[in-house]
Design goal:
11 helices; binds acetoacetyl-coenzyme A; 52% helix; 4-stranded mixed beta sheet; globular; 4-stranded antiparallel beta sheet; alpha+beta
């Protein structure tokens, strides 16, 4: 039965993350957005604090906290900077999680230890120019030639690609087998034939570098295969179940950040002789924002609890991501509205949060895909 009672460790992690977000992450956030400047120094500090290996086992130099602690920390970081938060989410819940659960001892020694401490940044390369929502349509191929795998193809929308030390790449080994022919590979940076394309000029999350990744006759051995050949699609999907929890927490954080700024502004700004928070039109907005954030946060905490208790949470992960991303867009839009004209300028930050919120409805599965995942589970299990 689902019930929540945060323990001292979880509350301490939340306190540390909140303080770090305020003292370090919030500094320069407007400039990083303007200049599209990746927060590499902040990420290094986060690695030292254990935030990049939060749920990774201590056997592999991770902090070995639970998923609840992870979502509490994610919310605090995303509240001030959604960009830093997305890198934290991808590293923890996609890259590290895949290595920890499917990687060999050698992978863990070579990559996971460094990822968990922030010495390495990693990326997850599933999407392609023609394989976004339809992830099984992998055009990237991996062909066995002698004792080598030779990979060719293009990956798209890869978070952190230019800074990555290791690339988790999904590729088709036998198109006749469709998704059962997909394999997952760990490819270190610098491997001949592996290249990173130019940075996308994005609407939001401007400081997280998003690039394409090219693979031209990239040769790796069997030791690069993560899991079994043919298991790649399942690894990708299982990773995304956890990844979506991280993005849901990020969306709650973005909404909470915008909400707090809207409340503050509404108490300071006066019209018709009173602070605008005393006008019913604004009161209704604040109440709606508060209620929606609480509901989204409850879904995020519930799915994190389910994951920590070893329960199948694929549907709940999509529910949390779908709902939290929807309300993050609604709340940030209302936060801009509460600010009036000031909401439309960078200094007041809510316009950035509104731009950042949008992608939470797109990446790690669009809202349309989340509906499919939820509905299929409902139909199968009802
Ligand atoms: N866990 C384990 N297995 C799963 C699974 C899961 N979560 N989801 C599906 N599967 C299995 C199914 O059981 C099925 O197994 P069998 O064939 O052996 O019976 C197999 O995978 C195929 O599943 P489906 O028939 O459901 O596959 P589909 O092609 O109809 O649909 C989908 C799958 C849900 C639409 C999927 O393609 C999907 O999630 N698409 C969205 C992709 C996505 O989220 N991309 C994000 C890119 S990463 C990113 O954005 C990261 C970043 O950098 C920020």
């Amino acid at each position: 039965m689902y019930s929540l009672n945060f323990d001292e460790t979880q509350l301490e992690i939340q306190r540390v993350a909140r303080q770090f977000a305020k003292d370090v992450v919030a500094q320069g956030v407007i400039e990083r957005d303007i200049n599209a400047e990746y927060p590499i120094d902040i990420l290094k500090q986060m690695g030292e604090l254990g935030f990049l290996g939060m749920t990774t086992s201590s056997d592999w130099d991770g902090a070995e906290f639970d998923t609840l602690s992870f979502v509490l920390a994610m919310e605090e970081i995303a509240k001030v900077d959604a960009t830093t938060a997305v890198v934290m989410s991808v590293q923890n819940s996609l890259v590290n999680w895949i290595f920890q659960n499917f990687g060999t001892e050698e992978h863990k020694e070579k990559y996971l230890k460094k990822l968990a401490t922030g010495e390495y940044i990693g990326c997850y390369c599933l999407s392609e120019p023609e394989a976004g929502s339809d992830a099984r349509e992998q055009h990237t191929t991996a062909e066995k030639v002698g004792d080598k795998w030779v990979l060719n193809g293009t990956k798209n929308w890869i978070t952190s690609a230019p800074h990555s030390d290791v690339f988790i790449v999904f590729a088709q080994t036998n198109s006749e087998l469709k998704h059962k022919g997909i394999a997952c590979f760990a490819i270190p940076k610098g491997t001949p034939g592996l290249s990173v394309g130019i940075k996308e000029d994005k609407m939001g999350l401007r400081a997280s570098d998003t690039c394409s990744v090219g693979l031209v006759n990239v040769e790796v051995g069997d030791d690069a295969v993560i899991g079994k050949v043919g298991e790649g699609f399942y690894i990708a999907m299982k990773g995304l179940t956890g990844g979506r929890i991280g993005i849901a927490a990020q969306a709650v954080g973005i909404a909470q950040g915008a909400f707090e700024l809207a409340v503050k502004y509404s108490k300071e700004r006066k019209t018709m002789g009173v602070p605008i928070c005393q006008h019913q039109a604004i009161e209704i907005k604040l109440a709606q924002m508060s209620m929606k954030i609480s509901a989204a946060r409850a879904l995020v905490h519930k799915v994190a609890w389910m994951k920590d208790n070893g329960l199948d949470c694929n549907r709940e992960s999509s529910e949390a991501k779908l709902f939290a991303s929807t309300i993050a867009n609604e709340v940030t839009r209302e936060a801009v509205q509460v600010h009036g004209g000031y909401g439309y300028v960078r200094e007041y930050q809510v316009e950035r949060m509104m731009r950042d919120a949008k992608v939470t409805e797109i990446y790690e599965g669009t809202s349309e895909i989340q509906h499919i995942v939820i509905a299929r589970d409902v139909i199968k299990n009802s």
